[in-house]
Amino acid sequence: MKKKRKNSKKNSLKYIVYILLLAIFSLSFFIAGVYIGENTNKKSLQKTQNVISMLEKKIKNLSNQLNQNNKNLYNLPSEIEDYETAHKHYKKTKPPVPVTVKLKTKKPKLVIILDDVSFGYQVKAIKHLPFEATPSFFPPTKIHPNTPVYAKEFKDYMVHVPMQALAFAHPEPDTINTDWSYSQIKQRIDEIKKWFPKAEFINNHTGSKFTADTTEMEKLFKVLKEDNLGFVDSRTTPYSKARDAEKIYHIPFFERNIFLDNKPDINYIQNQLKKAVKIARKRGYAIAIGHPHKTTIEALNESQNILKNVDVITINQLYELKTKNEK
Asked: Is-above-0.85 flag for pTM?
């Protein structure tokens, strides 16, 4: 992903800054030795000071570049980028109208899912939120190998399974593609189930192409039924076939209502939360998807007043309520 490449560039710049600082310290000790020595070489001293001055300028330039990278670190989250691509791709086709499912509750329920969870600092931030969010962990890769370990810190969590997009430059390793056979999908989901044995739901990372493919979604839902897993449709395309597949296999199933952090802006995120609360009050529940970005976490921490009229619950708790309603 673009974010990974920027993170890599950021880390490289940090290492360069550290090396240059070490060089300055070493040269400073050398200058001290020159001053103490009886036979001070003024030319050598001047040359060394010039080198230090040059290194200091390089450090300043690199620091400015690093700060700029920090400002630009936020990219449009992949699910949102994927959704916008799908809208452009199908712009001449009228999307199907989502089915509205209501839930009878004394107090409206809101599920806040945080996708792309990969690292320890994200886990810490989610656990310190003033409500119980639902983290959705990437399957482990070389870049984020410890996600199954982090998942154990939560009673309820999901797995964020990469699926093929219409156009996405940096897909995750082992992204499920539309040319996969049933056995390939089965092998992948079985592997995920072994990594995350307590997971009850998965949702799609990107997936605008895969989830719009009827045949592939039916293969996937058949596997999910066999593995006792539910599916939360991230709705990265308005043309998802997930609901059609659910009618055949009848697995636990929900759909995303709102993306929270299309923009890295606290006011925007909180306005999206207000929309989610409005949907929850109308239908009995709503599902909002965000990402563990710094701005998103900050916005959520400052939203107690917005959320005071809803119960924020996990996706597993929502399914339990839905099951009781249907009895």
From this structure: no
